[in-house]
Queue: 4 jobs
Job 1
Amino acid sequence: MPAHKSIGGSRYSEQGEGEAIVFLGEDAARLADGFAGSFRAIALDISADDPVAQVRRLLDDLGISSANLVGKGRGAALALAVAAAFPHRVRRIALLETVPEHDATAPVLCPALIVTGETHRDRAEALARRLQRGRGAVAAAGEVDQVLGAFLAERLSSFDNRELRSAFGSFMTGVTIVTTAGIDGQPRGFTANSFTSVSLEPPLLMICIGKQAASMEVFRHARGFAVNILSEAQKDISVLFASKRPDKFDVAEWRAGPFGNPLIEGSAAWFDCARYQVIDAGDHIVLMGHIEAFSYSDANPLGYARGHYITLGLEQAAVNAASSASRTVVGAILENDNRLVLLPDASRPNGLVLPEVGRHGHSGSASQLHDLLQREGMDATLGFLFAVFENPGTREQCIYYRGEALLHARGRTVLADFEDIPWDRLPDEATRSMLRRYAAERKLGRFKVYSGDHRQGTVKAVD
Ligand SMILES: Cc1cc2nc3c(=O)[nH]c(=O)nc-3n(C[C@H](O)[C@H](O)[C@H](O)COP(=O)(O)O)c2cc1C
């Protein structure tokens, strides 16, 4: 049995690690003992005149942003009341062998389980119907712990988190670096696309930071933070700050802003903010900032959608190139199993080219490129522009996409390792220099996306 401790006037016992469960009312100590193997199990002595405030204070004092509440006897009514009063502090509630009265004007939004014996089934089900996500369960006295265990082990959302993330990713955003001078004199920062402007009067903005981020606690307590909106020349900075590297601020160029938070050089805009509000929200916290100073330039902002960076300048240049009077070459830098896809060049013995259309005869187009790839036995995902330029030798406008290719038939394709590209077999210096840049950026891990599940954000390469 763990020793009783005292905090803020409350007596409680605590054991185990992981997601927090606070047991309230009858049987609390025995239940906490039973669940300490897989949870941070806390048994609270309900003592105060205002027990709802007592539970809230306990969570604050123990630094628990949200907890599961399990109540029995008068603890059941208390769990229900806390869930109604402080919805964002309660993950789910379980009411054991007790069906308390419920005030329907105070909605309970979290998942709720009411476990009773057969005789109280109807009352439990009636209460469950009045709660947004409630359900009743019938269990014999000896089976209650087991039913409770199964409920606590359930995933909170019935969605596939990767699918949900992909749906969110359809919303095209910019990319920011959020920084803070921190509380320990060490600057911190991370890449974020959850930026939103909130209010002009007073001037407010917000961003969300995942609870798994190494710097989350520093941001939660910092007196302020800065949001740097990246320009399209700053993909590398985005990748750097999306990493766990401890030397982010040694590598990036920055200066202290008027309110003291780090400003990244070359950003399209920045906002230096004082902490306005911190809101707990599931597996993230929302940081709302009061803007103390800001600035912006006319640099093109960097875009982000479906896990890819988007550069407006490049898209615009492609439109201009395609509508210009000169001939347009449309091609692709495609990878198959980490190797570069090349095709024989019919016009030069032993020559190789990227898959491309329009070099000879009429201008090429994206649909002709698709037809060529089909004919060569490839199924390719294009869509992201890599380069748009005028070839100085031929005056052609060149538009190159990047992507992945599946090979249905090997056909005429030649696959080259990026460390061993046959440079002298390529048609011209423009192609070589573009591929050198591609190979270098690929090595730096530039083509990366923010991904992960609800527990852990990770950054992984996609293409
Ligand atoms: C384009 C992009 C957008 C991201 N947006 C967010 C975000 O809004 N919130 C967040 O917590 N993490 C976001 N991430 C992930 C973090 O940058 C990443 O987890 C980082 O490692 C956190 O740094 P830290 O663990 O050193 O604190 C994003 C990553 C990328 C590449």
Job 2
Amino acid sequence: MFDYVPSPGFLKNRVILVTGAGDGIGKAAAKSFASYGATVILLGRTIKKLEAVYDEIEQAGYPQAAIYPMNLEGASPTDYENLANTLETEFKQLDGLLHNAAILGNLTPLEHYNIEMWYKVMQVNLNAPFLLTKACLSLLKTAANASIIFTSSPLGRKGKAYWGAYSVSKFATEGMMQILADELETNTKIRVNAINPGNCRTAMRMAAYPGEDQTKSTLPKNIMPLYLYLIGPDSHKINGQTLNAQG
Ligand SMILES: NC(=O)c1ccc[n+]([C@@H]2O[C@H](COP(=O)([O-])OP(=O)(O)OC[C@H]3O[C@@H](n4cnc5c(N)ncnc54)[C@H](OP(=O)(O)O)[C@@H]3O)[C@@H](O)[C@H]2O)c1
């Protein structure tokens, strides 16, 4: 699946929502899904970045995308319900949901962790995917074959000093993914998995490792085979797994 090459147009007529679609891995995923025929909903907080991705998709001749500006930090449960209702009204379907947006927070000992920052990281990295999934589930259940992908990290499997709320949010993300996968395994056609992207050259990586030689990190577009595999129908038997995008 790391060298997965889907057939052209294999995501045609599918509607896929990507969070954090304006930059980094989310941007690469949105463009990649669109290049295989998906209609992509670009959710993020910086409209300029979302517009740039929208334009790239349009200029490439892929299906027209849609922009849904939303700051996950301040969004209320009602905002998520409104989003799900808008998707139902405008698109009548939702076939894929990629939870990608996240923030790093502080790299500091727990003893000194800023409490406000702790809440922010949990809100964006954990509560937002919970609320978004909850709001979108009834629409996802109507799809013939739907895929929910969470985004994890090695720090969600092994705690390391100073990674604080980010690491805790990724541990919880893996737990949420497994619970949801188990709950939806019977009586729905929704599968739920997580991707560990590995070391990727993005703004987040640079913030976490400012002294690192960036050329040693792979570009987000190079890890797209796993994203394509898990979002599309070929992975219909995979459920409850965390897979590494770089092997
Ligand atoms: N890069 C790596 O090496 C690596 C490794 C392991 C896991 N990951 C995971 O991969 C995912 C993507 O990371 P990345 O490296 O691509 O990070 P990134 O370049 O920082 O991109 C994160 C995206 O999330 C959006 N976002 C952040 N806060 C938001 C909010 N409050 N509301 C809406 N959108 C928000 C950002 O929007 P703005 O552009 O507007 O800020 C941005 O588009 C994350 O879940 C991260 O934890 C990355």
Job 3
Amino acid sequence: MDLKKLSSFLEKEGVPPFRLKQVRDALYKSFAGSWDEVAALPAPLREKLKGEFRFRSVEPAETQVSKKGGAVKFAFGLKDGHLIETVLLNLLPEKWSLCVSTQVGCPVRCPFCATGRKGLKRNLSQEEITDQFLAAAAYLRKSSGQKINSVIFMGMGEPFYNYDSVAEAIRAMSDPERIGLGQRHISVSTAGHVPGIRRFAKDFPQCNLAVSLHASEDVLRNELVPLNRQYPLSQLAKALNDYIFSTRRRVFVEYVLLDGINNSRSQAAKLNSWLRSVAAPKYFTVNLIPYNRTGGPYKAPAKDRVKVFAGLMEEFGFEVTVRKSLGDDIAGACGQLAGK
Ligand code: SF4
């Protein structure tokens, strides 16, 4: 909800300012889902506001819970009829992370990604991004009494192509008067949008940066992450080096493992060299993501090949994690979000 518009409306109607705080608390602290749930307001005011302001900009259209556990996927309807997807992930006991979308579709068009195949429909507004959090938080509170501990901007879309709305959403999520999540619990994942990385370093040095690398040679990266044609690896290396120098923060390197495409021993060695050309290994966590099926010609490597690649990167001195494929049975794993 646009609280600035609501504030002017209430002022015009001669409603005392504490009513705005009641709405804000209902929205951000109690995760109310409708005007009827804002019990602190007098009923006639609630009725008037119902006609003027949509309570949430996203409406749950479908909620799928993974049978394997650890993941819940929401399809949210937007007021223009588009559908976006958002995933809650239970990565550690009682610790929930929310993967939010920033665009309807994505203009980057990575060929292994279901979102990318749809192309871009439009950017999401700040409200539409923040409301994914509020709706998921309300679900989690009702279903288990638990809360969301961290947010990652890694759902549908390239966040830095929608920088202003993403920045406003980060402010809403980290503002103690609103959601109040620490910025260290907020991560933004980019496909390598160099101007976005530079702005992000200045605006949000406390947030985490993840970069979807997937290849460390331009020819292959041009194919796997077409944004590389605009911002090739040399430019990305410089931007990441500047980011690390100015923030002193570790960068999370996302690397989807596609069997026979980017997972050979020599490609691990090239990844090592490229990362070292940016900064020392202590500044990176390499997050390996065995490919999740999205149709198309790619295959996930066998478990032992994932182990070999991970082992090599560890021997090169990097911290390495292998992403669990949470939510793959509900098409909610990395790369599988599609929306409409
Ligand atoms: S992987 Fe990310 S950047 Fe690439 S098409 Fe999918 S959503 Fe866009």
Job 4
Amino acid sequence: MHDSKPHVSLSEVRILLWDIDGTLMRSTVQGGYKQYFSATMQKVFGNAGRFDEIIPSGMTDTQIMFEALRGEGFTPEHIFERKDELLQVFQAEMKAVSAENGEPYETLKGVREILAETDENPDFINALLTGNLSVAAEIKLETVGLWDYFADAPNAFGEISHNRSDLAVEAGKLFNARYEFDFKPAQFIVIGDTPNDIICARAFGAKVVAVKTGRGQSAESLAELTPDYLLEDLSDTKKVLEILQTL
Ligand SMILES: [Mg+2]
């Protein structure tokens, strides 16, 4: 939001890479994404494959499509070949479903306060590291009034790769390019709710704070991967900010 705010030196700054679903916000309607996802796949690929059987949490949007369609002979390349059309149709389908169902999202506890605080604080830069397609991320965050925090950031979205671990590495490259600086992976803190968030942070060498606010994640599956911190939620904003400041 405040790209022009003064930062501590770039070698000291902490970059917060936020996951969206289950971390910043969540859908209040379980399975609410199914309608626009499957309509998009039908329109772009002529087929939704085994989409109904997929448990998508922690997966990128393009990975969900690939997993659903691989039995039909699709490769990730087939998905990415249609990227422009995919983004366009996905956006239209999401908007149509929102218009029909209202705005079925809620911001998770503590998130607004932490974003407001870190946005003003020169020690931090906020960005997204999400499996969501950019169009989906914008619609969701716009709905709950959080998009402005990320609109100008070098965000890593689901159309970059179907593999979430690539996204963290890509986030590093995007930051280096934007700031013309060679950030150390340890300056990045991934904040997410699934085992895949932890795995992708580690693949890059970033730190990671896991939160238990996602649906369908067992606390054990997160703990097993030994994130730097595992929090119930982000509601104790003072403690969360202290963690982000000292990690
Ligand atoms: Mg998530």
